[in-house]
Amino acid sequence: MNMNGRIATLMVHTSPLDQAGIGDAGGMNIYVAESAKRMAAMGVSVDIFTRRNHGDLPKSIELAPGVMVHHIDAGPVEGVTKEELPQYIPELSDKFIKALEGKSAYDIIHSHYWISGEVGIPASKKLGIPLIHTMHTMAKVKNLALADGETPEPGSRVRGEMEVVASARGLIANTDSEAASLVSLYSACPDNVHVVSPGVDLYTFTPGQGRAAARSALGISPDAQVLTFVGRIQPHKGPELLIRSTAEMVSHSPHLRRKLIVYIIGGASGAGGAEVQRLQELVNWLGISDVVNFMPPVPRAELPQWYRAADLVCVPSYSESFGLVALEAQACGTPVVATAVGGLRTAIADGISGVLVDGHDPRAWSSVLARLLVEPQRRVLLSMGAIEHASHFGWDTTARGTLDIYDRVISEIQQQPVVSGQ
To answer: Locate the Glycosyl transferase family domain: which residues (predicted)?
Structure first.
């Protein structure tokens, strides 16, 4: 990608301006914003197109030098859930095409999540700009690993994803595991699938002054044993598993209860406001309301302190395309206990930077957590391994890998023979 390259990034169901952990904002928001900043620092201009979701937003706003966010008007400004958004795909596509036609030519359209891919397909075809797509999560993968009582992803999403896979010139997967799923479950051409690991902001997420200083700043007892969950409160992220594991732990190891604190940090996902209340009622019913604390989403600037203050960060997801929380925690020097699924197998070095647990049995999780809590020396070794492992996942590497794929796709198109008219 040359120094005056121009990228049109498309993410319509959530904005890079939204705080992760609230509504539909999560790791993807961080991924798009951070990789765009790093690409811009390398001389490439990035325009991010998203749906306007607040009435007071300007038409365009600078996110960072070389990165602009442009708002597309489609459907009601506020109150549209991710599940309702597909009905506005045609309108979003038309508005996106008009927005691109009014600007200088772009080299690549890069869409994130299937709805954005569907919005990007008509623009790619009409304007002759190659479409690159990153799934982030996939319906078929999620439906193979649903939490209890979780609603399967609809067939309309599966069909949309299949269309995006068939239309994109390049597909970027977070891990080898995700790349394999694209080929086996979605019939993606292996030559079109590329792997680029997401990163972590290694300038913000650092060990800092350590656990004791972080606890002092947050008012947490220095001798407490702290387990922390960070993420949207939805069944798929597994907070209920951590709650049930905590109940198992204090039942089988009552001596842990006096010092144990579990923090569940995050907001309800999308329209799932009732989930937080349901989990609070579960905590009361299990008799562990003295141990489990629900916290609202924490601003990103304050998040490193919460990671540093924890003895262990828990990521009990049912599927995860990568798991940025796991990387952020490790970069802060905190070992991670996570489910052995999807991208978490890459984000965590099992036995070195944390522990991967097979399945979602609260008893298995409680035994792993209890054992780690009574082995401080092992946690110190895991902490050292966590910092080292996370150091290999900077956003600069992600940006360079993504630009390499853009270059490859553009080069392939330029080398294609021109077919003359009959």
So the answer is: 214-379
Query: Do 193 and 282 have their domain in common?
Result: no
DSSP 353-401: TEEEE-S--HHHHHHHHHHHHT-HHHHHHHHHHHHHHHTT-BHHHHHHH
CA atoms of 302 and 323, how far apart (whole Å): 19
- Quick check: 174 and 322 in contact, CB under 8 A? yes
Same-domain status, 170 and 304: no
- The region that residue 203 occupies, defined by phi over 0 for left and psi between -120 and 50 for alpha, beta otherwise, is alpha
* CA 75 to chain CA mean position, Å: 26
Location of structure tokens 């110190």: 380
Going 357 to 362 to 363 to 367, the CA torsion angle's sign is positive
Domain span including residue 152: 6-199+395-415
What Rg do the C-alpha atoms of the chain give, in angstroms?
22
- Considering the domain architecture, whether residues 162 and 246 belong to the same structural domain is answered as no
- DSSP helix/strand/coil, 256: helix
Per the CB < 8 A criterion, the answer to whether 308 and 333 are in contact is yes
Mean pLDDT of successive 10-residue stretches along the chain, which has 422 residues: 82 76 67 93 95 87 94 85 88 95 89 96 96 92 84 91 96 93 96 94 93 97 97 90 97 93 86 82 97 92 96 94 90 97 92 97 97 96 98 93 95 76 48
Task: State how far the Cα of 266 lies from the Cα of 122, in Å rounded to an integer.
Answer: 36
Please write down the HEC assignment for all residues of 270-327: CCCCHHHHHHHHHHHHHCCCCCEEEECCCCCCCHHHHHHHCCEEEECCCCCCCCHHHH
Q: Which two tokens stand for residue 7?
A: 């990228």
- H/E run at residue 50: strand 45-51
Neighbours of 18 (CB within 10 A): 17
pTM, rounded to two decimals: 0.84
The CA–CA distances, whole Å, from 259 to 41, 221, 250, 255, 284 equal 46, 9, 11, 8, 19
Q: Are 154 and 118 in contact (CB under 8 A)?
A: no
